[in-house]
Amino acid sequence: AAKQSGRDSYRFYDEAISSAMWHRLMLEQQLMLATQPDADLGLKLYLQPKVSLPDGQIAGAEVLLRWEHPEKGLISPAEFIPLAEESRLIVALDRWVFARSCRLLQESTAAGYQLPRISINLSAKQLQEPDLVEWCANTVKRFGLDPGCIELEITETAFINLADTVLERLQALRNTGFSLALDDFGTGYSSLTYLRRLPLDVVKIDRDFVADLCQDERAATLLQGVMQLLDKLDFSVVAEGIETTEQSALLHSIGCNVGQGFLFHRPMPADEFIALYYHEASSSC
Ligand code: C2E
Ligand code: MG
Ligand code: MG
Ligand code: MG
Hints:
Structural class: alpha/beta
Number of helices: 10
Bound molecules: ligand C2E, magnesium ion
Strand order of the largest sheet: 1-2-4-5-6-7-8-9
Mean pLDDT: 88
């Protein structure tokens, strides 16, 4: 009987694997289709405002991808980005987001709505692409935009193997006029090395840091020191994942002037963001 159930669970295991693989293949297939330029298979740009501390005025926005799957509902990027990153699919996905963000800026401007600076996430894989700089430069040009209205967020773990070609690419992006942000700062292995070597404009303090801030005195002391360091190095700082007024006040008190988090706004569809931004602009006059 033991042997029998062993064989059964083995078979069960086998089926579990193949159904997981099937699920994956389906998602990959659909993602691939969804990134075709004219496809409308449910990929949507959401925007999360970045606000100045402490007054909460909108200072920019981060583009966050959402996938409104016809059967599965809203799928989080935490689920499909890692999947896409296992292949070059992520390159197409990021570029789709980049081009759609450019189109959003162009169409908003044409409709009389000048948007603040937009941040776009780039995956580590993108930095391996020899044509990245040229592609980004051509795309903003195609939409008649100034690269200065776009910030590129690159997560810290992208730089574990920091090749010279990657550094040159970053420098070239910056020379083109894009601003560069180091995302998820404090989660990598050699955060301080990155600060020394990368051509950066902005450092985004990771949400885990912010989460610990008010419970843990050492986390607060550490962040205070980091803030002084970043200030001396002339980086702008954005704190992500702010959920409480205490976190917001503490961050402001140690010199952090821009934040992002559910306390202020959740990521929202682009049209909601534009309405919010313009409502705010007119009510503050
Ligand atoms: P990220 O770039 O660090 O983005 C911040 C994430 O934190 C977003 O999750 C955002 O919704 C979430 N967040 C913002 N404020 C709060 C808060 O107060 N509390 C909590 N708990 N969470 C908050 P999201 O949208 O699920 O995206 C997850 C990650 O997926 C992003 O992390 C980014 O690494 C990746 N991602 C999203 N869109 C893209 C994209 O277009 N391209 C690439 N390469 N990656 C993307
Ligand atoms: Mg980001
Ligand atoms: Mg981040
Ligand atoms: Mg993060």
